[in-house]
Amino acid sequence: MTRSMTAFAREHSSTDLGELTWELRSVNHRFLEPHVRLPEDLRALETPVRERLSARLARGKVDCTLRFVPSQDSAGGLKVNRRLLEQVLNAADEIATRIGEPATPHVLDLLRWPGLLEEPEQDPDAVAAAALALLDQALDGLVAHREREGERLRALLLERCDKLLALVADVRERMPQVLEGVRTRIRERLTEVLDELDPARLEQEMALLAQRLDVDEEMDRLSVHVEEVRKTLAGDAPVGRRLDFLMQELNREANTLSSKSADAETTHAAVEMKVLIEQMREQVQNLE
Predict the structure, then answer these.
(1) Contact in structure between 149 and 4 (CB atoms under 8 Å)
(2) Spatial CB neighbours of 206, under 8 Å, sequence gap ≥ 6
(3) Strand locations in the chain, DSSP E?
(4) Phi, psi of 81 (to 5 degrees)
(5) Alpha-carbon span 39 to 34, nearest angstrom
(6) C-alpha to C-alpha distance for 27 and 25, rounded to whole angstroms
(7) Does pTM surpass 0.90?
(8) Which class for 96: exposed (0-12), middle (13-18), buried (19 or more C-beta within 10 A)?
(9) How much is the pLDDT for 120?
(10) How far is CA 284 from CA 151, 159, 214, 229, 277, in A?
C-alpha cells in the first residue's frame, strides 16, 4: 500500500479519569523523526509512544501531542478528611476545657493541618493504559489518512508513467526518420565536394555520426526504469527511497536524450520528459 507522509489525526476520549486527546501530524522527512509532547505526569509514556510510532510508520516527521484534563471527581476538588477534623476539634475542646478558655480554632489554621485536606488518588497505570489505547486509535486514523493520500499520489505517478512511455514510443518511432534526415542534410551540404571525397570514408563517418545520435539505449533504459516505478508502486513495502533513486535515473536518461537530440521534435520530447519526471520527483518526496 502506497502511503503519503503528510497526514493528520485527532482522537478524543472522555473517561471517569478525565479528558484525553491525541493529535498526530506528519510531514515528509527522509527518516522517521517523532516529536512527542506529553503532560508532565505522563512523561513515562514517551518510550511506549515512540515504540508504537516506529511500529506503524517508516518515515516522516511526526508531531505527537497528548492533552489530559483530569475529571473533577478524580482530581478536581480537595476533600476534607472528616475523621481527622473531628479528632482535631475534639482535641481543641479538650485543651480548652483543661485551661478554662473557649476553643476557637481559626479556619485557615485548620486548613494548614497536615492531612486535613486530601487530593483523591489517581491510578497512573489506568490513565497510561487509556492514553495508549487512544493512541492506537489515533495511529489507525493517521495511517488511513496517509494511505488515502498515498493512493492519490500513486494514481498520479502511474498516469505520468503512461505519458513517459508514450513519449518514448514516439521518439523511438521517429528515430529512423531523424537519422535519415541527418544523412540527407549532410549529403546536401557536401554535394559540391562529393566527387573529391572517398565514398567509403564518407559512409563510415556517416555511420559513426548515426551511432552517436542513436538513442535506442536511452529509450530502453527509460522504459525499464518506468516499469520499475510501476513495479515498486505495486508492492507493499515503503517506496519513497527507491522511487527517489529511480527519478534520478530517469532524469539522467532524459538529459542524455536531450544532448543527443538531432531535431526539434526530439528536443521537445526530451523537455516534456524532464517536466514529467520533475513532477513525479516532487510527488515521490512525499511518499513513505
Answers:
(1) yes
(2) 183, 186
(3) 7-14, 18-27, 32-37, 60-70, 79-80, 117-118
(4) -80, 95
(5) 16
(6) 7
(7) no
(8) middle
(9) 60
(10) 12, 14, 31, 11, 10
Q: Grid coordinates in use for 35?
A: 516529536
Instruction: Go through the domains of the chain in sequence order and give each one's CATH number.
Output: 7-73+123-147 (3.30.230.40), 78-118 (no CATH), 150-284 (1.20.140)
Phi, psi angles (nearest 5°) of residue 36: -105, 125
Sign of torsion, CA 281 283 286 288?
negative
Q: Tell me which residues of the chain have a pLDDT lower than 70.
A: 72-78, 103, 118-122, 182-183, 185-213
Cα 238 to its chain centre, rounded Å, is 11
How many whole angstroms separate alpha carbon 74 and alpha carbon 97? 40
Burial 124-161 (b: 16+ CB within 10 A, else e): eeebeebbeebbeebbebbbebbbebbeebbeebeebb
Supply the pLDDT for residue 215. Answer: 79
Q: What is the pLDDT of residue 164?
A: 96
